[in-house]
Fold this protein.
Amino acid sequence: RRSSDLPWRAGDAVKTIAGSVAAAQVIAEHIGTTSERPVVLIDGGSGSGKTTLGERVTRLYPQAQIVHGDDLYSGWAGLSAVWDLSELVVRNRYQQWDWYQDHFAEEVILDARSPLVIEGCGVLTATNAKHASMTVWCSCPYKTRRDRALGRDEFFVDSWAMWAVQERLHQVRHHTEQLADVVVDLTAVAQ
């Protein structure tokens, strides 16, 4: 489904965009002009701005549905659960993780005709990219990401180190930035 002929990609050159407002516009434009069902993967480290970007895309293109990685991980040690989302994309359903009960809960059914945005740490792999019409990597310095993540979730403090190791393993194993069609610099909060 992916091609080097896509307007935001010139051969092997990756487009770099500063800020989630500009990136959301590019992604929404892609969704609106893709002939097949658009599937957009948005990856990046915790606190990099993936969720904000994904939500901005769905505000610009309300027909798009969003799946958050937080609903797919099987707890703090579960980042690898999103390395293969073939079943979710093909079957248009997934089991949602209940963080309070510490188990998978209800099944969520997606509209097979609506554009799909999947955002979360770990979603950008070669396996998942085969199903994607656009892949996005959110870039942000470690300290900025850590401050954001720990500032918004008091329970994350105890799990940050373990999660950061899983993120780094994912990035090294899957060469995430190299799989990205678009790299978004989300260093500044207000972008």
